[in-house]
Design brief:
Elements: E1 2-4, E2 14-16, H1 27-36, H2 41-46, E3 53-59, E4 68-73, H3 75-80, H4 83-93, E5 106-115, E6 118-128, H5 130-154, H6 157-166
Antiparallel strand pairs: 1-2, 3-4, 3-5, 5-6
C-alpha cells in the first residue's frame, strides 16, 4: 500500500488501497520476532531445554490426551508487549493449524522424549501448569472465604463469652483453615 504523509481533513495517514492484496505487516509482531531471535535458528533452538517452564501455546488435538509443544515466548517479551499481540505472535509462529483464536497463553513444562536411540531427535511433549494454578487459586479463594467466616465468628458475643468461661474458642471457630494441605483430596 502506498502511504501519503497526511490527509488534509484530519491529519491521519492516507493509504492508497490499490495494493490491497498485500497483507499489512504488524511492526509489534516484527519487534517480537527480533526480540525472540526467531530468524536465528541455532539461537532459538538452543533456548528449548528439557524440563524448563515456558509461556506459550500448546498443540492439543481433539482426540489426543497428549499436549505438544507449539510455540513459546520469553517472559521479557510477554510482559513487554500487549497480550493481543503476544497471542497473535504465538498463533502465527505455531507449527500447527490446531491453535484457535480463542487459545490464550499457558504456562507449560517441556518434557523431551527421545525418539529411538537418536539423541538429536526428540518428541516435545508438555505438561500444562496453568491448570494447576487455577485449581490452587479456586481452592485458595474458598479457603479465604472459610477463614473470613471463622474470623467473623470469633468476634461474636457467643464465642467471646465461651472464651471467657473455658479459655478456648467454640468448636466451629477453633480451627483456622490454611493453604497447607488444602489439595490433599486431589491425590
Amino acid at each position: 500500500m502506498t502511504q501519503y504523509p497526511y490527509n488534509n481533513q484530519n491529519n491521519e495517514l492516507y493509504e492508497d488501497a490499490s495494493n490491497s492484496d498485500v497483507e499489512d505487516e504488524d511492526p509489534i509482531i516484527d519487534n517480537i520476532i527480533e526480540d525472540e531471535q526467531i530468524m536465528e535458528d541455532e539461537i532459538y533452538e538452543s533456548k528449548i531445554v528439557n524440563n524448563k517452564t515456558y509461556i506459550g501455546v500448546p498443540i492439543i488435538e481433539s482426540g489426543d490426551a497428549i499436549a505438544l509443544f507449539g510455540s513459546h515466548i520469553s517472559a521479557q517479551s510477554f510482559y513487554k508487549y500487549p497480550i493481543e499481540k503476544v497471542c497473535k505472535f504465538l498463533r502465527e509462529m505455531s507449527c500447527s493449524g490446531h491453535v484457535s483464536n480463542k487459545d490464550s497463553p499457558e504456562i507449560m513444562q517441556l518434557i523431551q522424549i527421545p525418539i529411538s536411540n537418536n539423541p538429536v531427535c526428540a518428541f516435545n511433549s508438555i505438561v500444562i501448569k496453568t491448570i494447576w494454578l487455577r485449581i490452587v487459586q479456586r481452592r485458595w479463594k474458598k479457603l479465604m472465604q472459610q477463614r473470613n467466616r471463622v474470623i467473623q465468628g470469633r468476634t461474636t458475643l457467643r464465642n467471646i463469652r465461651h472464651i471467657e468461661m473455658t479459655g478456648r474458642h467454640l468448636p466451629e471457630y477453633s480451627v483456622l483453615p490454611r493453604l497447607q494441605g488444602c489439595l490433599y483430596d486431589l491425590a
